[in-house]
Amino acid sequence: MCGIVGAVGAELDLVSIFEGLRRLEYRGYDSAGVAIIHHGELEVAKASVARESMGVLADWLTAQPFTTGQVMVGHTRWPTHGAPTLANTHPHLDCTGDIAVVHNGIIENFRELRQALLERGHVFRSETDSEVIAHLLEEALRDGGRPADALGAVFSQLIGHMSIVVALRSYPGLLLGVRRTSPLLAASNAQQSFFASDAPAFLSLADQFYEVPEEVVVVLGEGVEGDGGVALATLEPLAIEWSSQDAVLDGFASYYEMELHQSPEAFYDTVSALMTLDHEAVVDQLLIDSYELRRVRKVVIIGCGTSYHAGLVGRYLVEHLARIPVEVDVASEYRYRDPILDADTLVVGISQSGESLETITALRECMASGARTIAITNVIGSQLSRVADAVLYTRAGPEISVASTKTHLAQIGALGMLAIYLGELKGVLYPEESKRRRQELLAMTELLRMTVQRQESWRAGMAEYLHRERFFFIGRNLLYPVAMEGALKMKELSYIAAEAYPAGELKHGPIAMLDEQAVVVALLGKDRLHEKMLSNLEEVRARGAKLVVVAVDGDTSPTDLADTILRVPQSDALWSPLLMVLPLQVLAGWMAQIRGYDLDKPRNLAKTVTVE
Ligand code: M6R
Predict the structure, then answer these.
(1) pTM
(2) At what angle do helices 406-425 and 305-322 cross, to 10 degrees?
(3) Which residue, of 452, 467, 483, is where some domain finishes?
(4) Closest C-alpha residue for ligand 1 atom 7
(5) 304 and 392 part of one domain
(6) What is the per-residue pLDDT for 244?
(7) Phi, psi (degrees; rounded to nearest 5) at 58
(8) Same-domain pairing of 391 and 540
(9) Quick one: pLDDT band at residue 284, thresholds 50, 70, 90?
(10) Is residue 604 part of a domain?
(11) What is the DSSP track for 196-221?
(12) 28: CA distance to ligand 1 center in Å?
């Protein structure tokens, strides 16, 4: 949440650094700002035109007489304290105007700190918690202390999870960074060094990335040895597998459309990395001993949003393939449930970004109760990957659009592989059976490719629902989480009221909402609940609601019931969530497009949520 960049070095090309900031826009886009040190001057520019701020800043930058600088820090904001106004936009300055601070996270004790600073005569220009950092640093540097020591002393007063980057006019060759839980990477090329919240910012500029350890001040720049803090050379290098091309729009109008299109490859890369050519499990990523996994008596899956929905699909997969009871919860709830865990519980934390604070903190608490933990994440070296005992990486490449698509499919792929492996260890699946299941899962790639090609046919069928305002998504068994994901996509992209229900639950209340204006999107699998689902469709039909059915090829049973049928290929019912979610993703995106909404930057949202 909020994107931070910083760069230091001789003759920084400011436009390239700014492009780095632009690549972090998915982290927040309500306002944005930069501070630049050039020829000894500290220049600050800000814009708070929701979703257009980067464009305004880019125009400002190109209009400047200078094109290079010694230091640049930048920030793109998802507001926590204070509305998205210019005053609340980062960077924040101290009273002298010499210290520029960008901050991501929340300072929980900022009220006390701010009050004390006000009493000591500081003047605040914003309502943010972040501004206290600049004023505290002003005091800490006043006595001539070294910059890194001063930032270290300030940081130790701040309560909460955050990352901070600081530029100082009096030290134009230096850049300081520090973090607690929130992400911050360092990076470098031969002449310059960088900080960024996430690697895509500098994939095209840096040739080496490093982990910024927690709680220590990292100092970048020339001759930093005498300045306290930790220098780049001492940091642990990070292996980043993404290339700068991965984050480039490839002829698509939006990242959402591009990433939806990339789903089959994201799924294939994830699943194939977890098996040999002979369909045996590859478990070197799973650092938990197989003896311990055999002992597992309960699996808990936690995540937020789309990752939570993947976890719900995972429940059916693990219970069916490994016969282990599974609990699934949203991370923000699980943590406060006083959950019952022991050493025989396996906790799986799912997070595309590996940064969702609620998932990280919940996983940490599970570990404290003695449970073993696995992270499923898309970001190598992310916080979640470091916290957990073991990691299964999804290999979807960078996902820029705020609304997740390809990573959801990759998460289900990783969960499928985990379920098969647990089934094998538990003796529920014979070795030949588990190999067959892996083969079957990998073969879903081809069906995904075929399904993604059907977008135009789905669109044609949906034209008459474009102006409807009430959608219900229904499914049974492992298609119920798919209904939930469909409703989430509809809400976040099209801002249309959409609810999801298990189809059998409709008659226990929600059916009262159905009339001619409502649209019900029903997921009709070719599974043991097919007949029951058909009865639910009859109930909907009888209330006059419009009925859109997602059905597999060749299933003629909904023909007389549905107003529209969206077809997906036939597959084993166990893997059908992978295919059935695609028309729902396309539908939500299309509704948003028709209504003129930004597909990549839905209002009020950010891609990574690093606050509770
Ligand atoms: O990075 P995470 O997977 O932990 O993010 C969790 C949710 O914020 C996320 O899945 C969100 O619901 C989706 N981007 C919505 O499409």
Answers:
(1) 0.82
(2) 30
(3) 452
(4) 305
(5) yes
(6) 66
(7) -60, -40
(8) no
(9) low
(10) no
(11) ESSGGGGTTT-SEEEE--TTS-EEEE
(12) 13
Is the Cβ atom of 608 under 6 angstroms away from ligand 1? yes
Share of the chain above pLDDT 70, in %: 97
Ligand 1 center to 304 CA (angstroms): 6
Answer yes or no: is the C-beta of 254 below 6 A from any ligand 1 atom. Answer: no
Q: Is the CB of 351 under 6 A from ligand 1?
A: yes
Q: Is residue 175 part of a domain?
A: yes
Strand partners, 238: 209
Q: Domain of 566?
A: 455-594
Q: How confident is the model at residue 82 (pLDDT cuts 50, 70, 90)?
A: confident
411 in ligand 1 pocket by Cβ < 6 Å? Answer: no
What DSSP character marks residue 254?
-
pLDDT at 226 over 60: no
Between 115 and 235, residue with greater pLDDT: 115
Report pLDDT for 225.
60
**What number of CA atoms fall less than 13 Å from residue 208's CA on the CB side?**
13
Q: Is residue 56 located within the same domain as residue 204?
A: yes
Q: How far apart are CA 296 and CA 288, in angstroms?
A: 11
* Beta carbon of 359 within 6 Å of any ligand 1 atom: yes
Q: Are residues 439 and 492 in the same domain?
A: no
pLDDT band for 254, please (50, 70, 90 cuts): very high
- Return the residue whose CA atom lies nearest to atom 11 of ligand 1: 305
**Rounded to the nearest whole angstrom, what is the distance from the C-alpha of residue 306 to the centroid of ligand 1?**
5
**Do 415 and 505 belong together in one domain?**
no
The yes-or-no verdict on residue 418 having pLDDT over 80 is: yes
Sign, Cα dihedral of 334, 340, 342, 345:
negative
Q: Which atom of ligand 1 is nearest to the CA of 356?
A: 4
Q: From the CB of 352, is ligand 1 less than 6 Å away?
A: yes
How does pLDDT run across 354-374, given as a tens digit for each residue? 989 999 999 999 999 999 999
Ligand 1 centroid to Cα of residue 404, in Å, is: 7
Give the Å distance between the CA of 66 and the centre of ligand 1: 39
The closest residue, in CA terms, to atom 8 on ligand 1 is 305
For the four alpha carbons of 152, 158, 162 and 167, in that order, the dihedral sign comes to negative
Q: Is the CB of 301 under 6 A from ligand 1?
A: no
Per-residue confidence (pLDDT) for residue 464, from 0 to 100 = 82
Looking at the CA of residue 608, tell me the nearest atom of ligand 1: 1
Ranges of beta strands (E only) in 248-371 are 298-303, 326-330, 345-351
Q: Which ligand 1 atom lies nearest to the CA of residue 303?
A: 4
pLDDT confidence tier of residue 290, bands split at 50, 70 and 90: confident
Q: Does the beta carbon of 306 lie inside 6 Å of ligand 1?
A: yes
Residues 149 and 24 in one domain: yes
Q: Name the least confident of 27-31, 71-75, 149-153, 297-301.
A: 27-31
Percent of the chain with pLDDT strictly greater than 90: 70
Say if ligand 1 is within 6 A of residue 305 CB: yes
- What are residue 396's DSSP bridge partners? none
CA–CA separation, 352 and 357 (whole Å): 12
Across 197-216, average pLDDT: 90
Q: Specify if 177 maps to a domain.
A: yes
Q: Which residues are catalytic?
A: 2, 607
Measured in Å, residue 448 CA sits from the centre of ligand 1 at 22
* 239 and 278 fall within a common domain: no
Beta carbons of 176 and 229 less than 8 angstroms apart: yes
Tell me whether the omega of the peptide bond preceding residue 602 falls within 30 degrees of 0, making it cis: no
